[in-house]
Design brief:
The chain is of the alpha+beta class. Among the domains are: 132 residues, no CATH class; 71 residues, Sporulation related repeat (Alpha-Beta Plaits). Helices cover 41% and strands 21% of the residues. It is built from 7 helices and 13 strands. The strands form 4 sheets. A 4-stranded antiparallel β-sheet has the order 11-12-10-13. A hairpin with a 3-residue loop joins strand 1 and strand 2. The chain is flat and about 100 Å long. The chain starts with a helix and ends with a strand.
């Protein structure tokens, strides 16, 4: 069984893939980056890490293997357990476990599992098709030097135009100046008159508006008491799945049964297989969701599993 292939498939869709009794592979979105020295541009990606503390089976990996290989869920769990046992045996012998396109696992000096991620695959689907590229640095000083050189070779000179002495032009200029000043004075008087008329019209309109508002004012003697409604809306991207049903009526029935037992059950839509999914509840915090899943598997449904999905 190519376990790393199944883990890699799930890393495209989920932020946490647990390998029971070994640890969890976590992903975190990293923004696009520019290397200042090499002038290389790197697209946004999912950075893969490993957490040895998360070892409890959440059912995600086993359910996916069961679906792909068309085998029972319990058989998939047993196959994962055998693979993990083999990995631990190699690690205790000092060997490095290379998971293709995921990274390398190796015990450190303290006896804990260290992880070195692979940089050959980008698990961020939003960045599909984007790759690293390198470009030359842009130097703007070159353009400044070129402009300076051009100005030295072709200076711009302003030569005043020589005019003959024409005394009659002086009197024409004085007449034009007098007409301009007179026109500006008349224009200013006209504009002042318009401003005065606009102000009077505005005051009259305000008085009419105040009169209409006073006529329309009324008082409610016995107002109804204000009603306050508290609506609880579930949110978060971590959902504990109770089941998926081909017939929608069955999913509605399942929601009623779970709510009767105190769960905040609801339907979250139809998955890509055309099944109506029902969840026990949804959480914003991943650790809180995993703790709730652990309690549900112990006390209510051992086949429940965690779905990481952003709902519309």
């Amino acid at each position: 069984m190519q376990l790393e292939t199944y883990i890699a498939d799930l890393l495209y869709r989920y932020d946490c893939v647990i390998l029971p009794e070994l640890g969890a592979f976590l992903t975190k979105r990293v923004s696009a980056q520019i290397h200042e020295t090499t002038h290389s541009f790197y697209p946004p990606k999912k950075l893969v890490s490993f957490n040895e503390q998360l070892q409890h089976n959440d059912g995600l990996l086993a359910s996916y293997i069961s679906e792909v290989e068309k085998i029972p869920y319990d058989v998939a769990v047993e196959k994962i357990a055998k693979k993990v046992k083999t990995i631990k045996s190699y690690l205790t012998q000092g060997e490095t476990i290379a998971l293709h396109h995921i990274g390398d696992l190796k015990l450190n000096v303290e006896g804990h599992i260290g992880f070195e991620p692979s940089h050959h695959v980008n698990y961020l689907t939003d960045a599909f098709g984007l790759s690293q590229f390198t470009t030359n640095a842009v130097s703007r000083e070159i353009h400044k030097k070129n402009v300076a050189i051009i100005e030295e070779r072709a200076p711009i000179a302003i030569i005043p135009e020589r005019r003959k002495n024409r005394p009659y032009l002086k009197y024409a200029a004085l007449a034009l100046l007098a007409l301009t000043v007179g026109g500006l004075g008349g224009s200013q008087l006209y504009l002042n008159h318009i401003d005065t008329q606009n102000q009077l019209a505005q005051e009259a309109a305000n008085q009419q508006l105040d009169a209409k508002v006073q006529q329309a004012t009324f008082v409610i003697e016995n107002p109804l008491p204000a009603a306050t409604l508290q609506v609880e809306k579930q949110g978060g991207n971590y959902h504990i799945v109770a089941g998926a049903f081909r017939v929608e009526a069955n999913s509605d029935k399942k929601v009623k049964q779970l709510r009767a037992k105190g769960f905040k059950a609801r339907k979250i839509g139809v998955n890509r297989y055309g099944l109506h999914e029902v969840v026990y509840s949804s959480y914003s915090d991943r650790i809180e969701a995993l703790n709730a899943l652990r309690d549900i598997k112990k006390s209510h449904n051992r086949d429940a599993w965690l779905l990481v999905k952003t709902l519309d």
